Amino acid sequence: MTFSEVIIDWYRQNKRELPWRKTTDPYKIWLSEIMLQQTRVDQGLPYYLAFEKAFPTVFDLADATEEKVLKLWQGLGYYSRARNLHHTAGYIARERKGEFPSSYKELLKLKGVGDYTASAIASISFNEASPVVDGNVYRVLSRYFGIDTPINSGRGIKYFKELAQELIDKEDPATFNQGIMEFGAVQCKPRSPLCSECPLNAGCVALKDNLVDQLPVKIRNARIKHRYFNYLIVHNEHRTLLFQRREKDIWQHLYEFPLVETEKPMSEEEIISHPQFKELIGENRFEISLYNKENVVHKLSHQHIHATFWIVYLKNDIEGGIRKSRIKEYPVPVLIANFVREYEF
Length: 345
Fold this sequence. Notes:
Helices cover 43% and strands 13% of the residues. The protein is an alpha+beta fold. The strands form 3 sheets. Strands 1, 5, 6, 7 and 8 form a 5-stranded mixed beta sheet that branches. The termini are far apart. It contains 15 helices and 9 strands. It has 2 domains: 3-130 and 158-187, Endonuclease III, domain 1, CATH 1.10.340; 225-343, Nucleoside Triphosphate Pyrophosphohydrolase (Alpha-Beta Complex).
């Protein structure tokens, strides 16, 4: 059997039963592919089911508020995906009357849709022989063919895309694309791949040359940036303060407590004397205490957030605050959600 035939045969026997595999509806395929970018299936599945229930059609998603979309997305990370999802739903619903583009090239023009997602929708929904190349596919191809070109280099991205185009089954591109992604996720796993029972092991260069643990090759990312977030949990008996992040930065449009970002960890005295603290609290009488003795380190792809939570109890009314009982209604970063759950206002 050819490479593509082996992949398709394996997939038909071993595929996991997942809801988006029971449809060719481009809305459902698009939704699942956007959610599963840089996300494990077991983590993304509950979110997919929640979105499918809340927004059964692209029109429902388009009509929702961004706040509701972000709240349902909360915890999945990479929030720009959710904002782009909502924006594109509006475009599809209003400008295209609910009809998705039916070709790879046209799908690429949608906001938030890149090469991988466009290929997935084009092949699964419209039977176009456009190959998907994600982390799973890179791993399968680099190991089987013994390719050490870095997968995140311009040359590597181009080479693997061309190779996948040569291999794709032109008659059944949907099954091949889903099959090779599933093969990488279940059989040719990043760690402890099931090489001894792999249907491709006879021709696998990495297995023959003992390179399985060394492939694929990836250029190391830039140095991790460290940021120090001092959250001021300003509250009184009934109310607290939340602000929406507006800057083009992490967690854009999500809500958080008043934030003082500094170059290093701060003492209580330094926080109280900080201009932002003074501007926020003004002449109000307050009591302050440190909630967490050790920084909470929240790791993102290219930066680590070192968070400190300062409890600031005011003895006055809070202008513009929200009722504590409503705090869980707002879309917030996981870092904030974890604190809210633990602190129990």
